[in-house]
Write a structure and sequence with these properties.
Blueprint lengths: L2 H24 L32 H4 L7 H12 L5 H21 L2 H4 L5 H16 L3 E19 L5 E17 L5 E21 L8 E6 L1
Antiparallel strand pairs: 1-2, 2-3, 3-4
Length: about 220
Amino acid sequence: MNSPLIQLLVLAGIAVFLILRLKNVLGTREGFEKPPVPLSDTTRRPGPALEVIEGGPDLDITDHVDEGSDEAKALAEMKRIEPSFHVGDFLGGARGAYEMIVMGYEHGDLDEIQPFLSEPVYESFVEGVSAREDQGLTIEANFIGVREMSLANATLDPKTNEAEITIRFVAELNSAVRDEGGDIIEGSLTEIKKQKDTWAFARIMGSDDPNWLLVSTDG
């Protein structure tokens, strides 16, 4: 037997010996061992799993009032009765309603804002506008914007499901009162004044009427 053949047989024997030793040391794939992910699937391999915590705080509520407060409990009950209700959406609507109602009163255009006022508030607005007209006064005003806004209180009557949410507004506007001759007797159209109001809106949760009514206008 020539030398190259002998060397080949020796190398083959060594290879078989090493394979058997490695098999004894590493074992075989069995049981619950998972097969390797093919290379073609590596681009679809998911990242770390994100745990979803059930029963966590409702950020739609806790972004505006303290967690566990009476206001938070009232808002949560409002959302239970009417799942489509969202505090953030309500505040956005209240911001728009504030500007519309303020300017409607300043300009004396009460017909446009009456659907958003409770009867007592509407009557007080009528008295205020009538008093100005009796004196021959008019108001010229420009609304600049709401600079601050916060949810001050929230309650829910468990018997009637009537919700009431109180909002504090800080707005900027300029206004001037003109007499019958058109002369400015109060205010200014060039100076910006800051106006602070605390308004309460009410509505029966779960009712078909989606409108919140302004029920009080404490300054």
